[in-house]
Design a protein that fits this description.
The chain has 195 residues and is α/β, with parallel strands linked by helices. The chain has eight helices and six strands.
């Protein structure tokens, strides 16, 4: 991406949540804050009509997506926001891009901007981000919606993803950029959500 300035536009964006699973989350640094922030990102993307893809790594061994995040995908958020069914894409490859079902779902959406959240930052998140960049996607990493078991791994993965061309940012920054202005649809809901 070099020095090109890229904006997140909701008509071209998708949120990807990587492996927020029951047996992984308790081991993450700051897991409670991570979960709360990820829930806000999911709800905000739903309010703004941004599609969401969720992965689970070897569900049999690592469990399902944690209830709070799964419920954020299906929760009723108002009359004008369609209810959804929680579905995940099963994977065993660390990179979501190594899973044909994920690649197919991503290509079907025809979006070129991918917002990334998930765990662990230095394994599945990092490998997915690098593979997405390699395929020409614009990648934004919600740094407050990723984690690892220790801060050193997270810090160096953030550096590596940034060096590769991903843009590091935050949940709130992403949601307000997607919204675009105080008179835009969803602004009041987003403002209430991030408080």
């Amino acid at each position: 991406m070099g020095n090109r300035i890229i904006k997140i536009k909701k008509e071209d964006a998708i949120l990807v949540g990587i492996d927020f699973q029951e047996r992984l989350m308790p081991a993450m640094k700051g897991n409670e804050e991570l979960e709360a922030t990820a829930v806000k990102l999911v709800k905000g993307c739903r309010i703004l009509g941004v599609p969401i893809l969720m992965t689970q790594q070897y569900t049999k061994g690592l469990g399902s997506t944690v209830p709070a995040i799964a419920e954020a995908i299906t929760a009723s958020l108002g009359d004008d926001i369609p209810e959804t069914v929680f579905e995940h894409i099963e994977k065993t490859s660390f990179s979501a891009m190594g899973e044909p079902a994920f690649v197919e779902a991503l290509e079907k959406l025809r979006k070129k901007t991918v917002i990334i959240s998930g765990i662990e930052a230095h394994v599945c998140v990092q490998q997915t981000v690098i593979d997405l960049l390699e395929k020409g996607y614009h990648v934004f990493v919600a740094n407050d919606c990723i984690s690892s078991r220790n801060n050193t791994d997270k810090k160096y993965s953030q550096r590596r993803m940034g060096d590769a061309g991903a843009v590091g940012t935050t949940m709130e920054s992403i949601l307000f950029e997607l919204c675009g202005g105080a008179k835009e649809p969803g602004f009041k809901q987003i403002s209430a959500l991030v408080k």
